[in-house]
Specification:
Elements: H1 2-17, E1 29-35, E2 39-44, E3 52-56, E4 60-67, E5 72-76, E6 88-95, E7 97-100, E8 108-109, E9 126-129, H2 152-157, E10 167-170, H3 176-185, E11 192-199, H4 203-215, E12 222-227, H5 233-251, E13 256-262, H6 264-277, H7 291-299, E14 303-304, E15 313-321, H8 330-338, E16 341-345, H9 347-351, E17 364-365, H10 374-379, H11 383-398, H12 405-421, H13 431-442, H14 454-468, H15 470-477, H16 484-499
Parallel strand pairs: 8-12, 10-15, 10-16, 11-12, 11-13, 13-15
Antiparallel strand pairs: 1-2, 1-6, 2-5, 3-4, 3-6, 4-5, 7-9, 14-15, 16-17
Helix pairs in contact: 5-6, 7-8, 11-12, 12-13, 13-14, 13-15, 13-16, 14-16
Length: about 500
């Protein structure tokens, strides 16, 4: 039966080569044998390369994925409504590419560069391959420049540096996307370009994100790459790679770039779907054995270039979803081992109205204080340890355990810190304000304030700092250390705020 099918396919290829241009050989034309959910099996094309872009008769596009001895497995990048058994497939000789350039700023596109907003067609500077090798280590610089997110608990406890890969993970509806959007919104006026990659999101959810960026003026420096839930799995699979190629264009020209992948769990689901239909051997949780490689070669492209290479950077904030707070699942553990730390959002904290619901005990930045401003390092040196100890003591206190005065004081200080860390969505706090508030809480300024009044006093304190100690906050943001004179100036302003 297979021999008869091959014979009929060869006959069709012979007939088709007579109607195409002379430079197209029979080896560059194949024929669809079977079509599945988002994939096709093609006979012929014995000289095709992995990742090569294929054109299918009728206008659909596909990408060569599996190169077997007698056939090719290709993933569809379009709906493929007109694709059927016997459809001719033409090899392009080029790998799948995405448009890059300054004209993409402020636009909403799909991974292949098709416009998804209502504006004019793109005018890209050039095209980059979707899959590109990571920057060699010799061309990289250490991660030492902070990327401020405007979120107090993140900048203080789990700081992010330019060129870092910091994972954001947690259960559904715990504020992961909101936290990533805050990081994008906080780059306004800082010269950092941003890329938001929506993978498998509902169209309404992506529209909400775009509206948020537009209402805060962030689309002026942001590119949105979207592969929605209704798109074929092949388009979802290439979406993060395409977004990274767009970011690398700016990085190689000396610019700092922040890219958000929302989210890599849905990316893993799309890759698993493709692999199972292509009959690849399933592994743990039915994922293919190379799912780790699929994510590692993506996130390894985030880096900070050495000064002689332009000094640009690409900072990655991948998002992953957990099930019932199970961070030991396959995809989350893979991503934790690849990235430079994680920000874990706890659903229990979220339900207790502690937002952002960052679990300080499970969150970590492996770059740590190296990417913090000097003033931050002085103020929050022991803050994470003190907060973690407070959470343990608070658990004992709920059991009715009698505590000594020292433990009671630690619980009181921990509750003050927790109130200070609470922050509404998109209500960003500047570096100078954060330093002043954290210095006040670690110095005991809030001890006489009832817990319920701390946030009101904090708001007053932040306003006073911006008006009465502007030169101190400017020097902090410029990277100068917090000397004793500046420290006393901030504490003086904080104490006056208590009297207001």
């Amino acid at each position: 039966m297979l021999k008869d099918l091959l014979a009929r396919t060869v006959q069709r290829l012979d007939e088709s080569t007579q109607s195409v241009e002379p430079q197209v050989s029979r080896r560059s034309i194949g024929s669809v044998v079977t079509i599945g959910d988002g994939v096709v099996r093609v006979l012929g094309l014995d000289q095709v390369k992995a990742g090569e872009l294929l054109h299918i008769e009728g206008g659909s596009r596909a990408m060569a994925h599996d190169l077997d001895p007698d056939s090719i497995g290709a993933v569809l990048l379009d709906e493929g409504a007109d694709v059927g058994s016997g459809s001719r497939v033409f090899a392009t000789g080029e790998v799948a590419r995405t448009p890059v350039g300054w004209s993409l700023i402020g636009r909403v596109i799909d991974p292949l560069g098709r416009v998804l907003d209502d504006e004019s067609p793109l005018k890209p500077s050039e095209y980059y391959p979707i899959e590109r090798p990571a920057t060699p280590i010799i061309h990289r610089a250490p991660v030492a420049v902070p990327l401020q997110t405007g979120v107090k608990v993140v900048d203080a406890i789990v700081p992010v540096g330019q060129g870092q890969r910091e994972l954001i993970l947690g259960d559904r509806q715990t504020g992961k996307t909101t936290l990533a959007l805050d990081a994008i919104l906080n780059q306004r006026g800082r010269g950092v370009l941003c890329i938001y990659v929506a993978i498998g999101q509902r169209t309404s959810e992506t529209a909400r994100v775009v509206n948020t960026l537009q209402s805060h003026g962030a689309m002026k420096y942001t590119v949105v790459v979207s592969a929605g839930s209704e798109e074929p799995p092949g388009l979802k699979y290439i979406a993060p790679y395409a977004g990274t190629s767009i970011g690398e264009y700016f990085m190689e020209r000396g610019r700092d770039v922040l890219i958000v992948y929302d989210d890599l769990t849905k990316h893993a689901y799309a890759y698993r779907e493709l692999s199972l239909i292509l009959r690849r051997p399933p592994g743990r949780e039915a994922f293919p054995s190379d799912i780790f490689y699929a994510h590692s070669r993506l996130l390894e492209r985030a880096t900070r270039l050495a000064p002689q290479r332009g000094g640009g950077s690409l900072t990655a904030l991948p998002i992953a979803e957990t099930q019932a707070q199970n961070i030991s699942a396959y995809v989350p553990t893979n991503l934790i081992s690849i990235t430079d730390g994680q920000i874990y959002l706890n659903s229990d904290l979220f339900q207790m109205n502690i937002r952002p619901a960052v679990d300080v005990g499970r969150s970590v930045s492996r770059v740590g204080g190296k990417s913090q401003l000097p003033a931050f390092r002085r103020v929050v040196a022991n803050l994470k340890l003190a907060y973690s100890q407070f959470e343990e003591l608070e658990l004992f206190s709920r059991l009715g355990t009698r505590l000594d005065p020292v433990s009671e004081q630690a619980i009181r200080r921990g509750r003050e810190i927790r109130e200070i860390f609470k922050q509404p969505p998109h209500a960003l706090v500047s570096v100078g304000e954060q330093i002043a508030v954290l210095l006040a809480v670690t110095s005991g300024v809030f001890e006489a304030v009832p817990i319920d009044d701390i946030r009101r006093v904090e708001a007053t304190m932040r306003r006073r700092v911006l008006s009465d100690a502007q030169e101190v906050t400017e020097s902090i943001e410029a990277g100068k250390p917090l000397d004793d004179t500046a420290r006393e100036r901030l504490l003086s302003v904080a104490r006056r705020a208590l009297e207001a």
